[in-house]
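Quick one, tokens below:
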């Protein structure tokens, strides 16, 4: 028989232990609490109740006061000493003030309930007691978490304060130091973006390096179209993050080419531009990038999504991103059910001019693909054994699988060079390493 589906994320039902030497009372309590969704355990003596507590995790105990051998006050005292987090209620049919006081003082009970009870009242008492226990546990958890995070922040602040002191002194000394600091901050920002863009690529081998290739092409197209440096940088970052809205996709959805999607899978896929925008909305500096990600699946002829806008109403950066992303997706088999060779991928792009793609963006793409003269490359390819401290990476250092190991503009030191060499030896690979040449001394 197939078991019913359950929500693994839902909290388990609260466990209530009822202790009373009268079986009819236990039966009545069991009938009362089970419809409330509680897991109900019963014991006919204090000793039996303690035995159950040793075996089971119990959230709340209801104990009768008058029981042979061990009365309710003594039983609840044992519970308080050994299981202090368990909520304790006293059930009594006697107006015996001294017994109730003993239970309060020794067992530190939450409430006492008189027999005969009102079903509604006792259910409310139990519910409120469990809610209070949950709040107290959450409060304790948050207090522990706060203390730990405060310690971590204190350590981090001490480290940051030392760095800020050093950096501030350097900034006072020269304007060049300020420019260098800004450059490093920009580099760290881009590195962080690249790390985020690698998260989705770790889900499948064919995705390795996809975001970086799209970003490189998008940046070249932006330059070709005459965008200023800020707009070009925005397009570059958007390209690095263009798949971030797919972070929650299932493996099956990620592995299915876009033109094969249908039904619910297609519906989930169509939401990824909106999800990408939502993920970046809290970051004020990335609002422009968020807008480009929202519009990346729009078509120039108005047949795209999520807004169905057309032509110049689509941000130019999004029009660039659409072409750059599709060009690489065609080659890795993510867009249609086969991998497309470069000449065929280019032709598919050309054939969709004015439909999926902006004619001006296609014209810039055609110029790049047809071999317009590019700037002369001044960096050098080298091997790990020839690296020297002070060398600066001119390009991202990536593994053979396409995952970034070090970002461009990273200045190498002896420790990092040793790690690169150890990586090659351990994995029996040779990395493609590009560096800027060291300046000639005295030049």
């Amino acid at each position: 028989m197939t078991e019913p589906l359950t929500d693994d994320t839902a909290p388990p039902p609260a466990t209530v232990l009822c202790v009373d030497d009268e079986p009819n009372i236990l039966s009545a309590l069991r009938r009362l609490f089970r419809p409330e969704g509680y897991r109900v355990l019963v014991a006919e003596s204090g000793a039996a109740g303690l035995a159950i507590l040793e075996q089971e995790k119990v959230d709340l105990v209801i104990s009768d006061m008058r029981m042979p051998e061990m009365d309710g006050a003594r039983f609840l005292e044992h519970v308080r000493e050994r299981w202090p987090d368990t909520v304790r209620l006293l059930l009594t049919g006697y107006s015996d003030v001294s017994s109730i006081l003993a239970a309060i003082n020794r067992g530190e009970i939450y409430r006492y309930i008189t027999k005969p009870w009102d079903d509604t009242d006792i259910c409310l008492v139990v519910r409120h007691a469990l809610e209070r226990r949950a709040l107290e546990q959450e409060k304790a958890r948050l207090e522990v978490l706060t203390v730990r995070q405060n310690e971590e922040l204190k350590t981090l602040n001490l480290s940051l304060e030392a760095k800020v002191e050093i950096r501030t002194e350097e900034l006072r000394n020269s304007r060049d130091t300020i420019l260098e600091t800004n450059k490093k901050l920009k580099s760290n920002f881009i590195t962080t973006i690249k790390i985020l863009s690698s998260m989705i690529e770790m889900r499948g081998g064919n995705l390795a390096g996809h975001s970086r290739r799209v970003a490189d092409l998008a940046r070249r197209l932006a330059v070709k179209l005459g965008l200023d440096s800020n707009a070009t940088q925005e397009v570059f970052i958007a390209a690095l993050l263009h798949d971030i809205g797919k972070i929650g996709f299932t493996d099956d959805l990620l592995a299915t080419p876009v033109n094969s999607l249908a039904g619910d899978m297609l519906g989930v896929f169509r939401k990824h531009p909106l999800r990408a925008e939502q993920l970046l909305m809290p970051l004020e500096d990335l609002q422009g990038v968020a807008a480009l990600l929202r519009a990346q699946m729009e078509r120039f002829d108005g047949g795209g999504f999520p807004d169905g806008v057309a032509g110049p109403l689509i941000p130019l950066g999004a029009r660039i991103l659409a072409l750059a992303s599709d060009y690489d997706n065609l080659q890795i088999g993510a867009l249609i059910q086969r991998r497309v060779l470069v000449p065929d991928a280019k032709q598919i792009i050309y054939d969709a001019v004015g439909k999926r793609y902006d004619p001006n963006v296609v014209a810039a793409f055609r110029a790049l693909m047809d071999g317009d003269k590019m700037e002369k490359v001044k960096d050098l390819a080298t091997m790990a054994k020839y690296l020297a401290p002070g060398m600066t990476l001119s390009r991202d250092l990536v593994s053979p699988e396409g995952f970034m190991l070090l970002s461009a503009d990273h200045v190498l030191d002896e420790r990092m060079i040793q790690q690169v060499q150890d990586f090659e030896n351990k994995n029996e690979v040779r990395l493609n390493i590009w560096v800027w040449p060291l300046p000639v001394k005295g030049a």
